[in-house]
Amino acid sequence: MEFSQAKNKFIQSWGALGSQWGINKTMAQIHAFLMISPESVSMEEIMDELKISRGNASMNLRSLIDWGIVYKDFKQGERKEFFYAEKDLDELAIKISRERTKREIKPALKVLKEVSAIDANATEKEKHFKTQTCALYNFVSKADNAIEKITEYNDNWLSKLLKRLLT
Q1: CATH number of the domain residue 31 falls in
Q2: At what angle do helices 157-166 and 124-152 cross, to 10 degrees?
Q3: Which of 154-165 are b and which e, b meaning 16 or more Cβ less than 10 Å from the residue's Cβ?
Q4: What is the pLDDT along the chain (167 residues), one digit of tens a residue?
Q5: Number of domains the chain contains
Q6: Structural domain of residue 129, as residue ranges?
Q7: What keywords tag this UniProt record (predicted)?
């Protein structure tokens, strides 16, 4: 497989995975392209590479910047904006985990806490509902705490976590 085919296959595959991670395909494709680009890239280059509109590129770049995994780069003498992706995979994993927690786990915890606080003394269905939603709240809360612990480590967080678990 030649370079251009491999590059295209990576970008397309990363884009397809993006929808499973809760982001849109184009956002993931832009991220993939920036990850494998050795230098910062202009919006025009992104548009050309991915065959997308300026509005689509702009909106998705803004989202990636909000996630903290893409940055703007200003080059002296250039009027264009350039962009580059976080290259440190540990840092990337931490930022994605934090963002997904904020967008997915925290709202779920809020709902579970609210619905499990009902007064459930009247019927078996109510008692069962309260038991199950309390159990779900406790489970999701533990998962949230575990993710927080993992993302607290900035330097080689995975090996530190494993060392801590094994000692």
Answers
A1: 1.10.10.10
A2: 120
A3: eeebeeeeeeee
A4: 898 899 999 999 988 888 777 788 999 999 999 999 999 999 999 999 999 999 999 999 999 999 999 999 988 888 899 999 999 888 888 888 888 888 888 999 999 999 888 876 778 888 899 889 999 999 999 988 888 877 776 555 555 665 566 66
A5: 2
A6: 89-166
A7: DNA-binding, Transcription, Transcription regulation
